[in-house]
Amino acid sequence: MKDDDRKGSRTLGEWENRTLKPFTDRTGERDVDFSTVSSLPIDRLYTPEDLGPDWNFDEKVGFPGEYPYTRGVYPSMYRGRLWTMRQFAGFGSAAQTNERFKYLLGHGQTGLSVAFDLPTLMGRDSDDHMARGEVGKEGVAIDSLADMEVLFEGIPLDRVSTSMTINAPAAVIFCMYLAVAEKQGVSFDSLNGTLQNDILKEYIAQKEWIYPPKPSIRIITDLIGFCTRSVPKWNTISISGYHIREAGSTAAQELAFTLADGIGYVQAGIEAGLEVDAFAPRLSFFWNSHNDFFEEIAKMRASRRMWARIMRERFGATDPRSWMCRFHTQTAGYSLTAQQPYNNVVRVTTQALAAVLGGTQSLHTNSLDETLALPSEEAVTIALRTQQILAEESGVTNTIDPLAGSYFVEALTDRMEREAMEYIDRIDELGGIVPAIETGFPQKEIADAAYRYQQQLEDASKVVVGVNKHRMDEKSKPDTLKIGHEVEEDQLARLEKLKSSRDQAAVDRCLAALSEAASGDENLLPLMLAAVREYATVGEVSEALVPVFGRYREVSFI
Amino acid sequence: MNENRKLRLLVGKVGLDGHDRGAKIIARAFRDAGFEVIYTGLHQSPEMVVATAIQEDVDAVSLSILSGAHNYLFPKVIELLKEQKADDIAVFGGGIVPEEDIPGLKEAGVVEIFTPGASTDSVIQWVRQNIKPRNL
Prior knowledge:
The complex is a heterodimer of chains A (558) and B (136).
Chain A lengths: L2 H5 L4 H16 L29 H4 L16 H4 L3 E2 L2 E2 L4 H13 L5 E4 L2 H4 L23 H7 L9 E5 L4 H15 L7 E4 L3 H8 L6 H18 L3 E2 L1 E4 L1 H5 L4 H21 L4 H4 L3 E7 L3 H22 L5 H4 L3 E5 L11 H15 L4 E3 L12 H16 L14 H23 L3 H6 L2 H18 L27 H16 L2 H15 L6 H9 L4 H12 L9
Parallel strand pairs in A: 1-10, 2-3, 3-4, 4-5, 5-6, 7-8, 8-9, 9-10
Chain B lengths: L7 E6 L7 H12 L3 E4 L6 H10 L4 E6 L4 H14 L6 E6 L6 H6 L5 E2 L5 H11 L6
Parallel strand pairs in B: 1-2, 1-3, 3-4, 4-5
């Protein structure tokens, strides 16, 4: 035996020639495309060479709770406190959802998360002609403060944190939440929670809008200004990649377009005269966790490092809390299959584990039956238990950012950052995210990626178990939750009764004051709050601004 | 002559549902398969979809619904087509539609419903076999 046989290879190239090639010449490698779910090619093996000669631990990785936060925003991470287990829920009437909230709180959930129905998301009342058939279907129907009072009945708002997934009419719904707090005798400064309030990703991906971008952003900066003064613990925007990913983007596009949206909001806040460090600490993010385990972890780690740099270097923020990319994660709804639905539990587990190893602050795990219908109580419980098993049985919470220093994970984190930064540069060249949206740039990139992925599913170069491989005949489907038509009927009756019993003159006065203020630069939040206190509806408050703000129309393309 | 012309298909998003990933994918796949495609864009009322279908002389209307409002929206579109004497325009679609709702929708006149996991190829094959150019 020669002496260097015992020493082993010194470089990747040497190993490939000396050890790998003789082996694969005999056995070959599997004939598959070794790439992520986003089609990022992945190498066979990663070594220090992949990090490059200039790779610097302090600059790229560092320590948790310290700039650039690659390892986590908090010094103790899950040793200090576990992530918030926050299951998104909302269906049917406010009373039904209130019951589900109490069920979840009773089973160890630590925060509430409200899903609204489509009419509410579009700022329309249940009696709007476009709302027919949609009331209470995909979320809870909220028309006025009266519904909001029922939704939070028996839930003290100073003792829960509430996340509300609402965008176009976010300010109106938020005012209703504030009005419920007033009625409960809870002061605004003890309210905790998050408003999604991310209109930019609506134009890009989720497509639930009312007004064009400019006036929409004005409402958002009004809300930020109001919260900075009066509701200091409230997270004013959850800048969301989730829907961008669900619409078919790659992981790098999700990262890029979401951070570009974040840049847009910070810029708007500064232009509205706010001090960056006064509002930036209350911005948070929302990521999707898809099937590709390492890609997701790399994306989340890169997001922290990128946001820290953007805030410090681009916007000159000096408060460390402004640099922190705190985020919520939801497992990828699109990845779930209607075929062999119990397999979804395994997908959700992998995705949730990636989110935990990516350092998420809160997590929603999807229910196994979500591609079939709204989740049943049993399916929601399994989804919550999945998080509890990861948190309390798997041992992954014992140490912080356990994958740091992996040549692969660090190289992939760097790569995510590079790819996302290239997109952000292109968006800057287009004049920022609003002009980019108006030209359809992110929308087109996402549609192209979605189509590419669909083709990969059809030629089975990307595998989905049970759909394009390992199929079988299935007899029974799990029981699912049904929303009956009576929800719509009941809601319409409630709304009619409300409209005939409230002080209509007061409502009209409030709405007129709001319309008038829209053409000036007064903060609209106090006026909206005054209107919802008088039981003005989501639709009425939203419509009051249309004459001044206009309506958004998308230029659609295929 | 009619028999040989390209099929004209309307791909529609009806109701308030903003999930247009599936609609855009199927619209592109139809176009790539050689059909003429009209995409309505988002947030269309049943009345708007029917008006476009008639104006554009389409052979079929393909609706994508992920909002759970399928039991209202599909029958409504069919009813309006009948009122306009345009019920020779076939209506089919896809989305999150529970299996047990499908028989009722077919009874209401929906020719076919494709559920999550259906390949664009299978939809295109189905269209080729089942949708014929209308006699205009």
